[in-house]
Amino acid sequence: LSEYSSTPSARQNSYLVGHGSLPTAVAVYDFNNDGYLDIAVNNFFNSYILILNGIGNDNFVRGKTYSTGDNSVPNALFLVDLNNDQRIDILVANIGSNCLGILFAQDHDTFANIITYSSGTSSAPWFAGFGDFNNDTYLDIVSANTGIGSITIFLGYGNDSFTDFITYSTGIGSAPVSLVVEDANNDYQLDILVANQYSNLVTVFLGYGNGSFYMITNSSNNAADECIM
Questions:
Q1: Domain boundary among 60, 84, 118
Q2: Burial per residue of 167-186, b for 16 or more beta-carbon CB atoms within 10 angstroms, e otherwise
Q3: Are residues 160 and 220 in the same domain?
Q4: What angle do CA 85, 86, 91 make, to 5 degrees?
Q5: Whether residue 87 is found in the same domain as residue 169
Q6: 101 and 133 part of one domain
Q7: Is pTM, for the whole model, over 0.85?
C-alpha cells in the first residue's frame, strides 16, 4: 500500500499489508477519533482486514487485523454505519466464502468478529452496496454475484441482523462486478444499476420502495467495464 503527499515535494510512503496479500480495496476513516484518518485495507489471499492508524506527519502505523473467515478471499470493502449506533462498520464482499460479511464497530477502536450472510452457492460476490430499500429507516445491503450472474438483497432489521437474501438475475454468464445504488428515475425510491463484465451490459433494477425490484433494461456497452461511477 502506497501513500503520496499532496505537497510539491511529494514522496511515497509504503506500508506492507502482508506477503502475497494482493490488496484490492482500501478506504479511509478516523476509526479511533484522534483527528487523524486511518486506513482499512483488505488482505485478499490471507483473508483479513488490516487497519493502519494515522499518527500525523503523513505517517501510519500497523494496527489491528480482523479475520474475514477462513479462505473467504475478501475482494471489496465499504465503510458505513449499518446498525445506526453512530459508529462506522466495515462491509466486506467475500468471493471465496460466497457471502457478505460485516465487522460491526465496538468501543475502543475495535470491531466485533465478522457476521456473514450467504449470497448463494458459487456466487462469488465481487462487490456490494447499501441503502434503505424498503423505507423502514434501516440500511439494507446488496451484493453483485460474479459467479452466478445475479444480485442479492438483504433487508436490515436495525439490530445487527439482516433477512435471508432475495436474488435477481443479471443474465446467464453476465458476471456482475460493480453496482451503484441511486434513485435513477426520480421517483424517490432507490434503484440498483449493475455493471456486467462478460455480457457488456448495464442492468437497471428499479425499486418499488418495499425492498423489491424489477429489471427494466440491459443497456448495451461497448467494453467490459469494471466500475460504475
A1: 118
A2: ebebbeebbbbbbbbeebee
A3: yes
A4: 80
A5: no
A6: no
A7: yes
